[in-house]
Design brief:
With 121 residues, the chain is α+β, with helices and mostly antiparallel strands. The chain has helices at residues 4-24, 29-38, 45-57, 80-100, 104-116; strands at 61-68, 71-78. 64% of the residues lie in helices and 13% in strands.
Amino acid sequence: MSDPIFRHFFAGFVRLHILYHADKHPVCGVEMMEELHRHGYELSPGTLYPILRAMTEAGYVEWSNEVVNGKRRKNYRITAKGRRLLREARDKVRELVGELVEDRDKMTAANTRGRSGQRKA
C-alpha cells in the first residue's frame, strides 16, 4: 500500500517483529526477510538492512559475524536496551489490541449501561 501513514504503522510493526525474533535467537537479514514474508511483509534488502543498521546504531540490537557455508553473515541479537523497549512495547500492544480487536470501549459502555440501566456521561 502506498499510503504513508499505513507504511509508517507497519514499519513500527516490522521493527517490533525484528526485536521479538532477535530476543529468541540470533537472526540474519535473509532469515528476517523470510520470516516477515510469512507474515505478509514484502521487504527488500534495501529496506531491511537500513532498518537493522538504525536499530544497531540506536543500541536495540547488536551483531556478530558468523561464517555459514563459506559465506560471512551478520547475526543480530537483542540488547538489554532492546529488551526493555520490547517489554514496554508488549504492554502497549496488549492495550491497543484490547481496544481494537476486543472493542473494549463498547464492552465498557455495555457494562456501564447494564449496571445502572442507563449510560453514564
